[in-house]
Design goal:
By secondary structure, the protein is α+β, with helices and mostly antiparallel strands. It is about 15% helix and about 50% strand. It starts with a helix and ends with a strand.
């Protein structure tokens, strides 16, 4: 009985992790000279996963995903903390041609997907 309980818990945990996976999960870099191993460091990678967007000196919680009709993008409310400050904004994420485009009122950026480890 205990073994069955453990199997059920492990299965539910795995299912919950899959359910939380987002369409943009992965590691990205600004260009090929940036390192994909050091997430959040200057010249390092940016990572999206488990509802978080981790970039240089900032971690943002992504919430309220909204599909944009007629586009491949998703709009998120993000709450970011870093460098002693907290801020909120809306960000549009679009993945196209092996690149991630992030657009907001404060700036736009284009990221290249990191090669698999």
């Amino acid at each position: 009985m205990r073994t069955l309980f453990i199997l059920i818990v492990v299965s539910l945990t795995s299912f919950a992790n899959l359910a939380n996976a987002g369409p943009f999960d992965g590691k990205y870099r600004l260009n090929k000279t940036w390192d994909c191993k050091n997430v959040g460091a200057d010249g390092g990678a940016m990572r999206i996963g488990k509802g978080l967007f981790e970039a240089v000196d900032n971690t943002c919680k992504m919430s309220n995903p909204t599909k944009i009709r007629g586009m491949s993008g998703m709009l998120y409310d993000v709450e970011c903390a870093g460098e002693g400050e907290v801020f909120k904004e809306r960000m549009l994420f679009i993945f196209q041609d092996h690149k991630l485009f992030i657009l907001s009122d404060t700036g736009n950026s284009t990221w290249q997907i990191c090669p698999p480890d």
